[in-house]
Amino acid sequence: MNSDDINKEVGGYILDHVPEAHVDVHNPELLIHIMCRKDAVYVYAQKDRGLGGYPLGIAGKSLLLISGGIDSPVAAYLMMKRGIKLECVHFAAPPYTSAKVIDKIHDLLHVLNEYQPDIKLYVVPFTDLEKKIYEVAGPSYCVTIMRRMMLRISESIAYQHNDLVLSGGESIGQVASQTLPSVKVIEQCSTMPMIRPLAVVDKRDIIDIAQKIGTFDISIRPYEDCCTIFQLKDPVTHPTLEAVERIESEFDWKSMVRDCIRNTKAEHITISQEEDEL
Predict the structure, then answer these.
(1) Are residues 112 and 7 in the same domain?
(2) 70-118 tens-digit pLDDT
(3) Pairing state of beta strands 265-270 and 118-125?
(4) 142, 131 Cβ separation under 8 angstroms
(5) How far from 147 is each of 28, 132, 176, 247, CA to CA, in Å?
(6) Which domain covers residue 30, as residue numbers?
(7) For a disulfide at 269, which of 7, 109, 185, 239, Cβ 3.0-4.6 Å?
(8) Is residue 113 part of a domain?
(9) How many domains is the chain partitioned into structurally?
(10) Which among 107, 106, 72, 79 has a CA at the least distance from the CA of 206?
């Protein structure tokens, strides 16, 4: 029997045995669903909306820049919903950042393990390069240059491990490095596409999703990441490529980027056996 045959058979039976019943296919008072399987037939009236999205990995793989803040775990969740398998990269700056920042990253990824059971995390030692950037660029252009170096390092890691695109939790205008002029200048150092699922999402809506998926309380733990350790005065919101390239020409950033890549550590964040059994 096909679907039409089942509809006719069941509908006819109801009309024959329930005299007061009638059929209104456009505005039904009660919609009955019938799901036929090889070993069973399921009859139900109510449908509960599930998570939605695509099967994980069907869309390919991305390397996500994760800071430990509110936004990047939400971006990760939305990427996973679209069928994108994620690897993550975090830039650590000890001793300026606490080891508890890494613990926070682990805890965030453990929450995201609900949607992807095995997440590979790359931890980049960023201290020396970040100090040099601050020394050369000063507080105004520091973040712009730093973000460009992060993209260069992330792009190299992504190419090594067959990630198709980079991704991150930026929201347009939220901070100085996320204005459109900043995004343009920062991205010009990379050839790999960058996906930003939160680009036009309001902060309140991002927080709502973070609370829904269980990452919000972890993200607001008071441990600074490498983007917040230096005092920034009047960070530039309209950087120019000419100014950026002039600053970068003043130090040997290429060798420092290579050192960061060479000393990057990789680990797998997975659902523990105890959690899996539960």
Answers:
(1) no
(2) 999 999 999 999 999 999 999 999 888 778 899 999 999 999 999 999 9
(3) antiparallel
(4) no
(5) 56, 14, 11, 14
(6) 3-44
(7) 109
(8) yes
(9) 2
(10) 72
